[in-house]
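INFO batch 0412 | record 1 of 1 | parsing
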Amino acid sequence: MNGLDLINRANKFISYGGIVIAIIMFSYLLPFTFTEIHSLYSIPSTYLYIPVKMNFTLSYFILALSLVLIILSFMPLIFKNSISEGFDGDNNKYYYSFFSIYIAILIFSSMIMELIDPSITVSVVSTYKLGVQNFIYATSSVFQVIVLEFIPVTVLTIVYLISTKNLKLSSLLHPYKYVKDVMYVFIIITAAISVFITHFNIYESILLYINTLILSYVYIRFGFLRSINMSFVSSIIELALVFFSPDILSTVLTLFLFLWAFLGFYTVVIYYSEKSKNVSKTEEKTEEELKEEKNNEILSRIKKTNPDKLWIRSACPNCSNIEFKVNDDYSLQCTRCGEVIAKDAYGPYNIAINNNYVYNRNKRA
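INFO prediction complete | emitting C-alpha cells
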C-alpha cells in the first residue's frame, strides 16, 4: 500500500467523523427549526441566493427540499451499490481526500480574511434563534450548490456538449469525461458568476469565489449530491463552532478541524510526491513496456465489466467502416468519417446497425 492509499483511508476516517458531527448537530436542532418556523418570515432571501419573500408555505417547501437532498447525499454511506458514476468505490476514495483539502482551504482562507478584517467573523446569523440558524445554515448550503454551482455549470455543460455533438442523457448525468478538457474554464466562469450575482463585500466575495471553485469542481468530478454533502457538512460544523463557543467542546471541535485541515494539506504533498514518482517511472519505461501496461489496463477493465455489457465493436454505426483510432480515453474514432464511439457504448446499438446493413445487402441481391 503506497502513501496515497494510506492518506485516502485517513481522509475517509476523519471525514466520517465530520459527517457524524454534522448529522448530530443538525438533528438536535431540527425540532427547534420546526417550532420556530414562523420566525423564518423575517430572514432575508440572500441566504438562499434567490429573490423570494418567505412565507409559511415557502418555508416548509424549502426545508423539505433541502432535507430530501441532504438525505440523498448521505445514501452512499448506507448503500454500497453504485447509484451514479460519482458514487463508485474509486471516486468515494478520492472524494474524501478532496473533502479534507476543502476543509483545509476554508480554514486557511478564513484565517487570512480574519487577519485582514476581524469583523468578517461576526455573523448576523448568530443573532437569530437556534432553529432559525439551523434552517439558514442547512438550506443555504443546499441552495448555494443549486443556484451558484449546479445551474451555471449545467448550462455551460449543455452548450459545450451541443457544440461537440455529445449531448445525451448519459453525458449530462456523468459530464466529467466529456468536459474534463475545459472543466477548469467552467469552474472559473461559474465562480465569477457567483460573485457577480451575490453583491457581497470584497472579503465575503473572495471566500465565496474560493468556495464556489471547489464545489463546482466536486460537482463535475464527483456528482451533484457529493457537492451538497460537502457543502452541508462544512456549513453545519461552522454552526456547531458557534453553538458550543466558548465551551470546551468548541475547543475540541476546533482541534478536530485543524487535524482535518492538516490531513488536507498533507494530502496535496503526498499526491504531488506520488505523481512525480509516477512521471519518473513513466519516463524510464520503454515503448514496449508502456504498450504492455496499457494492454493490461484494458484487460483489467474488461474483467471488471458486466458480461451482459461486454462486446466487441465491429463497425462504425455511421458508415460501417471497420478501422478505428483508439483515443486516450479509450473511445474509438472512425478513420473514414470521424464518428466517435464512447468507450462504454453497448453492443446492441452496433448490432442493430450491422443487421440493418445485412438486410439492405440481401435486399439489393
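INFO post-check: Confidence is low (pLDDT under 50) at residues 81-89, 347-365.
INFO record closed
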